[in-house]
Design goal:
binds flavin-adenine dinucleotide, 10 helices
């Protein structure tokens, strides 16, 4: 457990050619704040729909630096926290429609990568939701019942022996296969960056937006310049709280991952895992595992801490106690891999909203937003890019009607309380989820 670096593994898989910062005052049609998947997909779909649009992106660091480039890479149809919360809030029919749209995004991301020669290490492996105790088996059954209620395909629940033939972990007592893929999220983000630049979008790196001045044409202000635009899109995820209207709408909750050295053939031969499926444990504070393209094992999960004062600082990657817990979980699943050396240990913050499902919409019609993925955003941001495209173009479409949109049927998320109540509440919620996981 010694000697790992607190650097995002994916960041070491591709060099960044940063764009210039904003150093002028200009005007354009659409200015997007934030170069993660939400901002990039929005720019891409807008350019496909209206190639003549002048679109600019301002990014605090470089595109893919945020959650998008440090995600674990599970491309799943999950929207917000989980399917149970979604059906409870929106009903089976609306939840199904949104899940189908996000399900299509999984396939379309693969197609996008192939078509545009983006080497995002996309693997159409599916993922395996596994139970390691009776409470989790019950949860799998419940998810299957929900799929039935929604009229979606009902995945088969496998018992221990056939599950362990798929992934040879002695901890697994049951499983359910679900459609999905794996990706290297940083290479995907950098690939979309290249594509949107080729489409004529200008990206200003190292240009944090300091404020947005509202008006008939709002203005994005950075230290080096200003951009006045017909529409501004706020796509800053966990940093949405920097803008007045969103100050208490979103909180950063940390999640962590460890990545090993590439496994040797001897190590690989000790565990059945031919299909390389992403592995996800069926609980709220989930544990997940996957192979990277070069056969490292990524093991993620453990506690999901909220740090006092909405702390998002990178120094939170340096938390030995968290990695100790993750490593113990790893050995619970894979005791035969005791000799596997982990070289990367890092984390990032996810954007949690009070109703646990993403929100898209606009303030005054010309400042748009999309956030609140609650840690499940790789596929949902792709769908979200189409939602924002249609909201910007004023198109009444299937996407502008999806449950994500704040409209007469759905209110923006409720505010979180101020500190110290927020900290106390977040800790109590984490304890509650832990307790619920153990008995559901
Ligand atoms: C550790 C971790 C693991 C995850 N694993 C998965 C997974 O396996 N599967 C999955 O589906 N989802 C996962 N997620 C969630 C997923 O990564 C996100 O939901 C998704 O990437 C959100 O994309 P985004 O563009 O909205 O946000 P981001 O990628 O965070 O992009 C926001 C961008 O805005 C920039 N920015 C912030 N403030 C400003 C400002 N003032 N001015 C200009 N720019 C600014 C940031 O630098 C950043 O690049 C994970 C998230 C984390 C943190």
């Amino acid at each position: 457990m010694n000697g790992f670096k607190h650097v995002v593994y994916w960041h070491d898989t591709e060099e960044v050619d940063a764009g210039p910062p904003l150093r002028e005052s200009i005007e354009c049609d659409v200015c997007i704040v934030g170069g993660g998947f939400t901002g990039l997909w929005t720019a891409h779909f807008l350019k496909l729909a209206e190639p003549a649009l002048d679109i600019r992106i301002v990014e605090a660091r470089h595109s893919g630096f945020g959650a998008s480039g440090r995600a674990d890479g599970f491309v799943t149809p999950t929207i917000g926290k989980d399917i149970q919360a979604l059906v409870q809030q929106f009903g089976a029919q609306r939840a199904l429609k949104a899940s189908q749209a996000v399900g299509r995004s999984i396939l379309e991301i693969g197609r996008f990568a192939r078509k545009n020669k983006v080497d995002a290490q996309y693997e159409a492996t599916d993922y395996l939701m596994v139970a390691t105790d009776q409470a989790q088996l019950k949860r799998l059954r419940h998810d299957r019942e929900l799929a039935e209620r929604m009229g979606a395909a009902q995945p088969e629940i496998l018992s221990a022996a056939p599950s362990r033939e798929i992934v040879g972990s002695p901890a697994i007592v049951g499983s359910m296969r679900t459609g999905g893929a794996l990706v290297n999220p940083f290479r995907l983000a950098r690939g979309i960056t290249r594509v949107v630049r080729d489409q004529g979008v200008t990206i200003y790196d190292n240009s944090p937006c300091l404020q947005v001045e509202p008006g008939a044409r709002p203005t994005v202000v950075t230290a080096g310049g200003r951009i006045k635009a017909d529409k501004v899109v706020l796509a800053t995820n966990v940093h949405m709280d920097a803008f007045k209207e969103f100050r208490r709408k979103v909180i950063p909750v940390w999640t962590y991952a460890m990545v090993s050295e590439p496994l040797t053939d001897r190590q690989l031969s000790r565990v059945n895992w031919e299909g390389r499926e992403g592995l996800v444990e069926a609980k709220s504070l989930l544990t997940c595992a996957r192979f990277t393209h070069d056969n490292r094992i990524m093991f993620a999960g453990g506690p999901v801490p909220y740090y006092f004062g909405r702390d998002k600082r990178q120094r939170n990657m340096n938390r030995r106690e968290v990695y100790r817990e993750i490593h113990q979980e790893f050995l619970r699943f894979f005791p035969m891999w005791r000799d596997v050396e982990f070289s990367y240990a890092y984390g990032g913050a996810i954007d949690v909203v009070r109703d646990f499902a993403p929100h898209f919409g606009s303030i005054d019609g010309n400042i748009l937003y999309g956030y609140g993925y609650c840690g499940n955003g790789i596929a949902a941001t792709h769908t979200g890019g189409k939602v924002l495209r249609d909201l910007i173009l004023g198109k009444d479409s299937d996407y502008s009607q999806l449950l994500f949109v704040d409209d007469e049927r759905r209110k923006p998320p409720a505010s979180f309380p101020p500190e110290p109540f927020l900290y106390a509440g977040a800790r109590a919620t984490a304890r509650f989820m832990d307790w619920k996981d153990s008995r559901s």
